[in-house]
Design goal:
By secondary structure, the chain is of the alpha/beta class. The chain is 35% helix and 16% strand. It contains 22 helices and 22 strands. It has a 5-stranded antiparallel β-sheet with strand order 2-1-14-13-12, sandwiched between helices. Strand 12 and strand 13 form a beta hairpin. The protein starts with a helix and ends with a helix.
Length: 646
């Protein structure tokens, strides 16, 4: 055999190897071991059902850092499946990324105009609390019920050319998103609408109409089925042509979701440029169920709990246990079903990723709305999901995962807006809470005592505190020591009148902008956006509670009954002044005299006080902690105190 012939043979063999679907023996064995006859039938006919499946095992180290191992079953980028609504997921990420580059908040109203054939205007959104469309509202609808119009508006805001360029730069050359979900020609889909971002009567950003000038490679024909109905409902006796449709391989969709849920797990160049609050927002609405949303509000007879949760739950409209959250995106169209998901079981400390697609179209006719979703598709996702969840429940892990970031992001979903001032009074737990704005004189002492006593605490600090250069080393120390760092407003505004509490002293816009400042200041320290917020002066009313909840946050406050919050007072304040011994006595008296003691308490102390106070209560912190430990209290952070499952 000549050298040239041998080289050619090697190239042909390599090409053939690349064309083979990837299947790991572990996946094949696990599925075959547990599969029902129906699932065995599906797996035995790969040409008919075109199943692709990725299982991602996650193992944590002692510092809770995740490591990922992917297992594949019949995964092949060369086999086309219509991604349908799966393309909405990367557009949600890219829309937030673009907003960050423009310096625009995701809640800022976005108005859409028209400038080309087929385009439509948007001036109102009745599903939003304020009646106005925004990127945040569109993303909510995309993850809650896979809303098509919401996707179209993100497509128009980002533009197909930017979509292509951004995804290509992140390592997704095979992803192609070139269509809205509304009947349009290819030329119409190349043109995008003008959009405007407004605040009141002011336009803060104006984006003109644009046209996509990229040339796409449509050289590979993609045909599906044996017949199809065209847009005029005429039966065409040949396969449907998907050559110029959207495309998104399963591996790429899985990696995109992983890059958002676990950004540190992918190279920096592959991450979406998102803020900590963007991550918190995405986690919340990826996992939220339709009944847990008030704005938008859904008819739950149509949009039931598992409407967009294919794995384990959609078949039979299954109910999802409260300790399980599924962070995912699904797509369904033309007989193709796809789900890319991350499971977090808070109670059992189980986590894994699962991604799959299947084609269920027995008669081979597309656009006839006769697909076996209910008979074969959703049962497939239920059974496969149950197999891997069952495997994960019994799998030994080197370290149990701390899933607090995901539990916190979804806390309070579906609950009415309330201020939480105390946790479970039946459990012997409490949280020591510190607030800070302009003073931090007790910071280093507090940090040292907490470390000595091995106690985690919660620190609610203002934007001013986070921005003060002299406080940066303390913030870094508190963060490195594992304490919970959260917000206390941007500039320590007084929200409502001291006497007439119902009288607001700030507008909603002022409240939101001030709180956004607080979160931006935290982000600059690399602090994940917290779910819990403690208002300045520990003073608020029902409007502040509702505004906080509308941002997907939870307002908390100190537990009343002791005088620990009076540690800011100084002698010149007269009768309001409380010495440290008096404060300590109020704590011990409450503990001794109440049946539930300090169970569920949020005990508030200030991280620093006015120099005119000489008798610093924080100097008694170790004495306080030893007293509480002697009374058998578990001292925890606020998220752990309020957790329903930890």
């Amino acid at each position: 055999m000549s050298r040239t012939t041998f080289t050619l043979l090697l190239l042909l063999l390599a090409a053939a190897a690349r064309a083979q679907p990837r299947t790991d023996a572990f996946m094949k064995d696990l599925l075959n071991k547990h599969a029902s006859p129906q699932l065995r039938h599906i797996l035995a006919h790969p040409d008919s059902f075109q199943v692709q499946l990725i299982y991602t095992q996650i193992n944590r180290d002692a510092q809770n850092r995740p490591a990922f191992r992917h297992y594949y079953y019949h995964v092949d980028k060369a086999v086309y499946f219509n991604p349908a609504s799966m393309v909405k997921m990367p557009l949600a990420f890219l829309a937030l990324e673009k907003l960050n580059s423009l310096g625009i908040d995701k809640y800022t109203p976005m108005l859409t105009d028209s400038a080309f054939s087929g385009q439509t205007r948007v001036r109102r959104d009745t599903s939003a609390e304020n009646g106005l469309p925004s990127i945040a509202q569109y993303i909510k609808k995309i993850f809650l019920v896979s809303d098509n119009d919401a996707y179209n508006r993100l497509y128009e805001f980002i533009g197909p050319q930017t979509i292509r360029e951004k995804l290509l730069a992140k390592g997704y050359p095979d992803v192609r998103i070139v269509r809205r979900f509304v009947p349009m020609t290819e030329e119409e889909n190349r043109h995008t609408n003008p959009v405007y971002f407004v605040l009141g009567a002011d336009t803060v950003y104006r984006q003109p109409a644009a046209v996509n000038t990229l040339v796409y490679d449509f050289s590979k024909p993609l045909f599906v089925g044996r017949q199809h109905y065209d847009r005029n409902d005429a039966l065409i006796n040949k396969p449907m042509d998907f050559t110029r449709h959207n495309n998104a391989p399963l591996q790429d969709l899985q990696r995109m979701l992983q890059s958002v849920l676990f950004p540190a797990s992918v190279p920096a160049a592959q991450r979406f440029n998102l803020s900590p609050d963007d991550y918190r927002f995405l986690y919340r609405y990826m996992a939220a169920l339709p009944f847990e949303s008030d704005h938008p509000k859904y008819d739950t007879s149509e949009f039931f709990d598992s409407y967009t949760k294919f794995f384990r739950f959609k078949a039979g409209r299954g109910k999802i246990p409260p300790h399980i959250r599924v962070f995912n995106k699904t797509g369904w169209s033309y007989g193709f079903l796809t789900d890319v998901a991350y499971f977090a079981d808070i109670k059992n400390k189980v986590e894994f990723m699962l991604s799959a697609n299947i084609y269920v179209n027995r008669d081979g006719v597309l656009n006839d709305n006769k697909y076996e979703y209910e008979e074969e598709g959703y049962p497939f996702f239920k059974e496969v999901g149950d197999i891997f969840y069952g495997y994960e429940l019994q799998r030994q892990r080197p370290h149990a995962p701390d899933l607090g970031i995901f539990e916190e992001a979804t806390a309070g979903l579906g609950q009415p807006p309330v201020a939480i001032t105390r946790g479970d009074t039946t459990r012997r737990r409490l949280a020591i809470v510190f607030t800070g704005h302009e003073f931090a004189d007790g910071g280093e002492h507090i940090a040292a005592v907490l470390k000595k006593c091995k106690v985690p605490a919660s620190f609610f600090l203002t934007g001013t505190f986070y921005e003060t250069p002299a406080f940066a080393p303390l913030i870094r120390r508190l963060k490195n020591d594992g304490h919970y760092l959260a917000g206390h407003s941007g500039r320590h505004l007084l929200y409502c009148d001291w006497v007439k509490r119902d009288s607001l002293l700030v507008t909603r816009r002022e409240f939101e902008e001030d709180l956004a400042l607080n979160y931006r200041a935290m982000a600059r320290h690399g602090i994940a956006a917290p779910h819990y917020f403690l208002p300045p002066y520990e003073w608020y009313n029902d409007s502040i509670v509702k505004w906080t909840a509308a941002l997907g946050l939870q307002l908390v406050n100190f537990s009343p009954g002791t005088r620990s919050t009076a540690d800011y007072t100084y002698p010149e304040m007269g009768k309001s002044y409380r010495g440290s011994d008096s404060i300590m006595k109020s704590v011990t008296d409450f503990e001794n005299q109440r049946p539930a003691g300090l169970n569920g308490f949020m005990l508030l102390v200030h991280i620093g006080t006015d120099p005119r106070r000489i008798d610093k209560f924080y100097l008694q912190l170790e004495k306080l902690i030893r007293y509480l430990q002697g009374k058998q209290y578990e001292l925890v952070t606020v998220p752990r105190l309020l957790s329903l499952h930890l």
